[in-house]
Fold each of these.
Amino acid sequence: MAKALVSTSFDTSSNELIQLVSFKLDNEEFGIEVLKVREIIRMITITHMPNTPHYMEGVINLRGKVIPIVSMRKKFNLMESENNSQTRIIVMDVGGELMGFIVDAVSEVIRVSASEIQPPPNVVSGGIDQDCITGVINQADRLLVLLNLEKLFPADNKQFLIGL
């Protein structure tokens, strides 16, 4: 298991450069640590599993490994939309296990100074758990919400997903 060199609690007083993968859901942009991302793939056939949480799309076989797939739209209680040519699955290391996350589009890998990261607001809407938001970056024409996906899935829930 690779250990991330960048912690999810950023020291915003430093000028350390942090690399993030930005992705879109609906009309919002989010960022996650690039070191947690194993790969980004196009949509493939997902095998649906019975009796799973509503946001679980199912599992895929990625080079012989079964990986649970989560719909980020469903997890964040956003309206569903049809997959298109921009839809991607981001395969990430979450707590030492691989999980896939369906997003509307992957934008880019960006570098930001830790000092650009502002603390998350006290009030969060849209069903996103406050603990999973590690900060917000205000760039000229956009806001980028930084996520810690490990905090989005409590250990007991994650064990259920990984046990598929």
Amino acid sequence: MKTLLLLRHAKSSWKEPGLHDHDRPLNKRGKKEAPKVGIYLKDHDLVPDLILSSTARRAHDTAQAVHDESGFSGEINLYPDLYLSDTSCYLDILCYLPEDANRVLVVGHNPDLEELLTLLTDVTEHMATATLAQVDLPITSWQELNEATDGRLQLLWTPREE
């Protein structure tokens, strides 16, 4: 069994209207909530084997805060294709992950993450900023992952629940 952790980036800032969307940083709330996700992962024995992130600044900053607080010792793998993509792109990336990665965290954006969650679990949930979803997948190899994979939503958590 593989576990996929989906994390929508933390709340971003709109203070600089001329700033390109890809370059928007986290706002005050986002900087407060992103580290809480890392603490949650550590406290609940959910530290991933791999972290994948969109290259958008708000996603990468979220991934970095999770990295720093969770005790994850690897590097964050950045994927430009996780920014403004679709579920097939996410699946394509996941299918090529190393087999020794049993728990993988993907930090990305909506609507892609909500659509991926629905595709893999048949559960439709709103993923507000900094929401974490844990999906257990009945596969032994990432290469088996596809649109028909019948995953199970184990948890949907947000730092605002604390």
Amino acid sequence: MPTNEPAGTLFIRENTLLPGGLIIETETFLPGWRAVRNCDGYRLGRKIEEAKWNFFYLAGELKAIVLGRVGPSALRRALRSILAKPAARKFNSVEIRETRSRWFLGIPFVSVTANFRHIQQSLALDRANDFTQIAPAVPERTIAANNYGNLVSSS
């Protein structure tokens, strides 16, 4: 883990396309994800904007609660839980906003709040950067025409 305080920590998906000349220090945190060292979301956003790229901040926070005390293992479990959500496949970075350590009936647990971020060159949030393979939607008229064509040719 890059710092003692996990709030503000950024994680970037491996093989994410970054602006040329942008050099950031990262370390492996989870399989397929790297933790950014010595740089928070604001500083990284400024560097990306200087390169004429965009660093989107997506509204709507995600929460995960894991048993244990604040530390690298609890953060890994919480981040794994957040990244398991289907929406995580669409974005290439995530930022930890807050961590809270609490106790319930003598059992420690950690609540982690995060937001998705996305790095890309174009100004509009591009759906072509989804990391999932989704077949393009086919209009209903095309499906109906294909079914009708098959019905006519078979008779």
